[in-house]
Amino acid sequence: MGIVSFILGILSLTGTCLALIPLLNLFNCIMLPLALFGAIFGLVDVLHKRDAEKNNALGIAGLAMNLLALAVGGTRFVISLLTTWGIV
Q1: Residue 64: pLDDT over 90
Q2: What is the pLDDT of residue 86?
Q3: DSSP symbols for the chain
Q4: Residue 11 in contact with residue 65, Cβ under 8 Å?
Q5: Model confidence at 88, in pLDDT bands (50, 70, 90)?
Q6: Are 68 and 15 in contact (CB under 8 A)?
Q7: What are phi and psi of 85, to 5 degrees?
Q8: In the predicted model, what is the mean pLDDT of residues 51-60?
Q9: C-alpha to C-alpha distance for 79 and 43, rounded to whole angstroms
Q10: Chain centroid to CA 74
């Protein structure tokens, strides 16, 4: 699950950064659910490997990237709703 979270983190962070370009804000609607699923997978991986002495670096990295993508994408989404009165 850590690998899945890491890959989804890379994809969602890249898509969220592309959504900062003015006419590409549609990527934000696609990347926010992707980042949410990646964060859930990363959290499950970290909690699953917490008791066992296994390496959970990919889960932690994926969780961090997905949370960053959620923060940036959520902020972009709220700003878009406030400035365009609901037209995303």
Answers
A1: yes
A2: 62
A3: -HHHHHHHHHHHHHHHHHTTSGGGTHHHHHHHHHHHHHHHHHHHHHHHSTTTT---HHHHHHHHHHHHHHHHHHHHHHHHHHHHTT--
A4: no
A5: low
A6: no
A7: 55, 45
A8: 80
A9: 27
A10: 10
Q: How far is CA 8 from the centre of its chain?
A: 7
Q: Are the beta carbons of 87 and 26 closer than 8 angstroms?
A: no
When pLDDT is averaged across residues 11-27 and rounded to a whole number, the result is 84
User: Which pLDDT band holds residue 4 (cuts at 50, 70, 90)?
Assistant: very high
At residue 50, does pLDDT exceed 60?
yes
**Tokens 């992707």 sit on residue:** 34
Tokens of 48: 């699953």
In this structure, which amino acid lies at residue 31? M
